[in-house]
Each structure stands twice: as structure tokens, then as C-alpha cells.
Amino acid sequence: MSTDRQDRLRDGQVWVRLLLMLVYLFVVFELVALLVGIGMLFQFVYRLVKGEDAHRLKDFTADLNTFIYSALQYVTFNSDERPFPFCDWPAPSSSDDHSSRH
User: Fold this and answer.
1) How far, in Å, CA of 11 to CA of 7, rounded?
2) pLDDT, tens only, 40-77
3) Is a pLDDT exceeding 50 seen at residue 4?
4) Residue 99 DSSP symbol
């Protein structure tokens, strides 16, 4: 085995990333799927009853969408920036959110 490969295998950052990827895959993504399902049902019932959207829930799910995107970017090696909770909670960009937020 080459020295370069041995160095890569001993690099702790590689193994930490694998651990984080597994945690996101088996814990975080499942939790987010549950939150999306609950939010979807609540938003449907709220609109059915009130005739309008629950704006705070829309804001939360917009933030959740941005979080999931950043987490997917990390676990698919499209980004080296660790997602929340290792950085700030991602909020949608100002061009996306001000038109829908109240």
C-alpha cells in the first residue's frame, strides 16, 4: 500500500465525515421526513379550515428545505461545509423569503 493511501486512511477527518454522513442518513433525514409529513398535514388542515396558509409554518418549512439542501450537499461531497448544527441554521436567501414571509 502506498504511503499516500495510508495517510488518507489514517486521516481522522475522513472518518469523522463518514460518521456524520451516517448520522445524517439514518437519523437527521428520517427526522426531517417526519417533520415534513407533519407540516404538510397541518398546512393542509389549516388551509381547509382557515382558507389561508399558516405563514409561520411556511417560514419554518422554507428554512427546513434550505437545511436539507445544505445537508445533502455535504453528504454527497458537493460541499465540505458541515451542515447545522456545525454552522448556523440556514435561512432561505433574502431574495427567496421576503415575498412570502409575513
Assistant:
1) 6
2) 999 999 999 999 999 999 999 998 998 899 889 988 98
3) yes
4) T
Q: Is the pTM of this model over 0.90?
A: no
Assigned C-alpha cell, 18: 463518514
Amino acid at 14: V
Structure-block grid coordinates of residue 88: 448556523
Q: Would you state the cell numbers that stand for residue 6, as one nine-digit string?
A: 495510508
Helices (H), 1-102: 3-10, 12-23, 29-50, 55-75, 94-97
The total number of structural domains that make up the chain: 1
The total of other beta-carbon atoms located within 10 Å of residue 46's CB is 14
Domain, as residue range, for 34: 3-97
* Amino acid residing at 23: V
